[in-house]
Amino acid sequence: MSQPLPGTALDQLFRTARTYNAFTGEVSDETLHQLYELLKFGPTEANTTPARIVFVKSAEAKAKLGPALSEGNFKKTMGAPVVAIVGYDMRFFDKLPVLFPHTDAKPWFEHRDEANLAWVAMRSSALQTAYLILAARSLGLDCGPMTGFDNAKVDEAFFAGTPIRSNILVNLGHGDPASIFPRSPRLGFDEACRIA
User: Fold this and answer.
1) Which of 7, 9, 31, 149 has the lowest CB atom count within 10 Å?
2) Where is the Nitroreductase domain (predicted)?
3) What is the pLDDT of residues 24-52, one digit of tens each?
């Protein structure tokens, strides 16, 4: 039976975790493998798992990414040890015979129009981005997720000739506390929720 996590774990994952604007340190390839091995277990629609991730580490890859970044995101992204480009595979349904083996789920998606497929793929890859953030935090990394970039430029630089489209970027490393602002307010339960 699952037990609630201790307060220290909840702090690391949620309460004291922050979105950082500057990072230090290095992130090993082994850590990135560990991160994926955690995030892959998060649920997605019909286990479609459409996220496809490029972990940008090298100077050459960062040079390809740089022109796609908004001015406000350029410096912090170029300075991050790793930038995860989370994309989504528009042909995610090709993997369903393996990923959803108990029934033939491929026909549920393969004949849908592109806009509908994009909605399914984007929604589940956004879920997978959240799992990536939680997995990274659980491994002692800090994150800086963002959508302030030119998707078309990222797609051309990293996914040309494939059915993959970019969705979200996440800077990864060890956050510099001097780079964060005081925590912004959050809505209270009664403002955001109701029990029906």
Assistant:
1) 7
2) 16-158
3) 999 999 999 999 999 999 999 999 999 99
